[in-house]
Design brief:
Elements: E1 4-10, E2 24-29, E3 32-36, H1 42-49, E4 58-60, H2 72-81, E5 88-93, H3 97-104, E6 115-120, E7 124-128, E8 133-138, E9 146-151, E10 155-158, H4 160-166, H5 171-179, E11 181-184, E12 187-190, E13 195-198, E14 202-206, H6 213-219, E15 224-228, H7 236-241, H8 247-257, E16 261-265, H9 275-282, E17 288-290, E18 296-298
Parallel strand pairs: 3-4, 4-5, 5-6, 14-15, 15-16, 16-17
Antiparallel strand pairs: 1-2, 1-18, 2-3, 7-8, 8-9, 9-14, 10-13, 11-12
Helix pairs in contact: 6-8, 8-9
Length: about 300
């Protein structure tokens, strides 16, 4: 059975707290595991959350501030130690190559990993295959920062009742899906007669940034948005000066972009509880979640057109 869910490994901005680890977000997607921004302590958080290094098939770093990347060295060494057999691409800002190189070789270990460094310097698709596309768009922080979007292509949903009406069964169903049409006696049955459009699901991660068009573009129509909300609205001016957003900013972004479910995270250590963030955002956007370490959040089911 396919699984599409977010495993929250850490939710702290800048420094860990008693209850919040540095950032870390693992998106499980039909057998893939895309790890975003592994901060310090990500290995331990994965153990606590019941996920393993072998589940990681891709890593994405938004920028090279420490709370978003200091765990990368440990994760690379853990991938090596656990003998992960598959190649693991790593996407990161090209301008931070020197920091990636330092983290890649931060200490002595027998490197058995197979990594594919994939620096990002141009907005748009960074990876495309038959089932998913990874898109990167520049954000507006105090250093170069990129957001990422996982986009499933649109498809079609087969309607069993239509198949039954037309007497299509067995191998003929596979032929119809594969070829887009099926000859049945004198009649040519086309796929669109027995199916309906199925919009592809999408997830976006928008980390350190002030409100900007890039964030809206990344979040446009996604089913799940993981979004920084470092401050509450009474500190909005400070947030924007430091290249961050408030919970209200995140909710307004979700509303403007037509997001279905918003996950708030990256909380400043000045706030002991996340409930205030949820209260502020929920006044603007209906489906909000205040992330906490160890939380699992489902990607909402596909909606029908």
């Amino acid at each position: 059975m396919s699984v599409r869910e977010l495993v929250v490994l850490g939710t702290a901005s800048q420094v860990p707290t008693r209850h919040r680890n540095h950032n870390g977000y693992l998106l499980l997607w039909d057998g893939r595991g895309i790890l975003f921004d592994p901060g310090e302590g990500t290995q331990r958080q994965m153990i606590r959350s019941g996920v393993s290094a072998s589940m990681i098939t891709r890593i994405c770093v938004t920028h090279f501030h420490g709370d978003h990347c200091l765990g990368l060295a440990g994760m690379i060494q853990r991938i090596s130690l656990d003998g992960v057999p598959h190649e693991v691409p790593i996407h990161y800002p090209a301008s931070g190559q020197v920091y990636f190189d330092r983290l890649r070789r931060a200490s002595i270990f027998k490197d058995m990993s197979t990594l594919e460094p994939s620096p990002v310097d141009t907005p748009g698709p960074q990876h495309t295959d038959d089932t998913v596309e990874l898109i990167a768009i520049r954000l507006s922080h105090t250093v170069e920062s990129w957001g990422y979007r996982i986009q499933e292509p649109d498809g079609r949903r087969i309607l069993p009742e239509r198949l039954a009406e037309l007497g299509i069964q067995g191998q003929d169903i596979g032929t119809l899906v594969r070829d887009g049409a099926l000859q049945q006696g004198d009649r040519l049955i086309r796929l669109d007669e027995v199916s309906e459009p199925r919009p592809g699901q999408a997830v976006a991660i928008v980390m350190d940034t002030r409100p900007c068009r890039g964030a809206v573009e990344l979040a446009r129509g996604v089913d799940l948005l993981i979004c920084e909300s470092t401050y509450l609205d009474d500190a909005r001016r400070e947030a924007h000066e430091r290249g961050h957003m408030t919970a209200r900013d995140a909710a307004e972004l979700a509303q403007e972009a037509g997001v279905r479910r918003l996950v708030l995270t990256h909380f400043s250590q000045r706030y002991p509880a996340a409930e205030q963030f949820l209260e502020e955002a929920a006044r603007i956007h209906g489906d909000c979640v205040a992330a906490r370490d160890g939380l699992r959040v489902d990607v909402p089911k596909r909606r029908r057109r």
